[in-house]
Structure prediction request, 138 residues.
Amino acid sequence: MLITPRVSEKSYKLAADNVYVFDVPLDANKAEVTAIIETENKDVKVRDVRLVIAKGKPKSVNRGKRARPTTTTRKDTKKAYVTLSEGKIEISAFAEIENQANATEAEKAKVEKDEKLNAKAEKASTVTRRRTGRRGDR
Prediction:
């Protein structure tokens, strides 16, 4: 049975609370999901598994020039919300998101530092002139 992690903003936020979201086959049950998670990740203890079936959305389909447009539905999907009591599951997509966030913070700090240096350089390079009111001093 193939269980894949679901990568979304909601699942990323839930992972901070030790709740992981997986896409599972429609015929999977809680015991199978628990067994697979614990065998794939040795130092993990599953506390709870919640299964949700998301019904497929209806979509309109045009089947040719003279045929009438009809509607069909997408496949149903099943999600498993797995709560862990011990350990963590490393999901590579979440690690990439965290690396990107850390990189952007470092870039922001670098840009702010460069702006401060540029502001100081501009301030030092400007020469103050006395205005005497004549046309040539403008």
